[in-house]
């Protein structure tokens, strides 16, 4: 009965967790009089000029000798990016700053794009901290984290016994 009263009073649908969260977000937006923003447009601590979160796309792959992480950073200068490795976590932080200005007799165009970003991923214990390198070329940051020599695969099949 309490569930029915809650459903009637707040128009929440209990069909699934996403529906509940969407309904709660709409209710909060009504309460505070904000725009109905889609999740990818929610404000974040790390935001761009439009108030949208900026997070570089990452590709992570493992080879026999290293982990290779590639981040798309179009329009970002190498001096505006930092890569750190602390307690097993690799972090890529930076800021995008871009300006375009064009003047002509009949028009004037001035565009700016800026925002801070950060991505962090945990790397396995087999990474050799002293052998992590980063290079940026044509808007792609490539980080190579070499494995320690003798680092064996951490996977092991465990036999299941009857009790």
What does this structure look like?
The chain has helices at residues 2-10, 17-32; strands at residues 58-62, 66-72, 81-86, 89-103, 108-122, 127-137, 140-147. A hairpin with a 2-residue loop joins strand 3 (81-86) and strand 4 (89-103). It has 2 domains: 2-36, no CATH class; 58-147, Immunoglobulin-like. The radius of gyration is 24 Å and the shape is flat. By secondary structure, it is α+β, with helices and mostly antiparallel strands.
Number of helices: 2
- General form: flat
Spatial ordering of strands, largest sheet: 1-2-7-6
Radius of gyration: 24 Å
β-strand number? 7
The CATH topology of the largest domain, please? Immunoglobulin-like
| Cα distance spanning the termini | 44 Å
User: Helical content, roughly?
Assistant: 10-25%
Low-confidence stretches: 1-10, 34-49
SSE class: alpha+beta
What is the oligomeric state here?
single chain
Write the layout of secondary structure elements.
Layout: H1 2-10, H2 17-32, E1 58-62, E2 66-72, E3 81-86, E4 89-103, E5 108-122, E6 127-137, E7 140-147
Antiparallel strand pairs: 1-2, 2-7, 3-4, 4-5, 6-7
Briefly summarize what is shown.
With 163 residues, the protein is an alpha+beta fold. It contains two helices and seven strands, in the order H-H-E-E-E-E-E-E-E. The protein folds into two domains: 2-36, no CATH class; 58-147, Sandwich (Immunoglobulin-like).
